[in-house]
Design brief:
153 residues, alpha/beta, Rossmann fold, 9 strands, elongated
């Protein structure tokens, strides 16, 4: 898509964002974090997941929205920005945070069909350039995002 966008950059003021994983209230339960939160909200005792050792850079959707607005105001056409938290969390960490929030631990059953042989172990972004251009964008810790998702519909 970046290639397609670059075709129009000489005619349109396009700013490219490379947005990492984000989540929040209202995201489809087909996505990983809402699936985990949903299991805890329903008080389920067990969840079926893939590789829980992988680490991903998760952002709160409210942060991402603020970053987009700030880029529209302060960004320069033709530039590329990573929109990310700059912190990677393993799924084990996510499960531990949810256990603390919900007050109980859930049993994880690893389904081999959910495990990808070529999965990247750690995927973490660098938001340095973004922060230089937009400044403070109201970073929200993942634990706070999980709590927001757990307590809201």
């Amino acid at each position: 898509m970046e290639y397609m966008a670059r075709i129009w950059m000489d005619r349109l003021p396009i700013i490219l964002s490379r947005t990492f994983n984000y989540t929040g209230v209202g995201q489809s339960p087909q996505f990983l974090i809402p699936k985990i939160v949903g299991h805890f909200r329903r008080g389920e005792e067990e969840i079926e997941l893939g590789n829980i050792d992988i680490e991903r850079d998760f952002s709160d959707v409210r942060m991402v929205a603020r970053a987009y607005v700030a880029l529209l105001v302060n960004g320069t056409a033709g530039e590329v920005f990573n929109v990310c938290s700059g912190k990677a969390h393993s799924l084990k960490e996510v499960l531990a945070m949810m256990a603390e929030i919900a007050g109980y631990e859930i049993k994880v059953r690893v389904n081999p069909t959910f495990v990808r042989a070529n999965d990247v172990k750690r995927l973490q972004g660098n938001a340095g350039k973004l922060k230089q251009v937009i400044g403070d964008w109201g970073e929200i810790p993942l634990r706070d995002t999980l709590r927001w998702m757990y307590t809201n519909d």
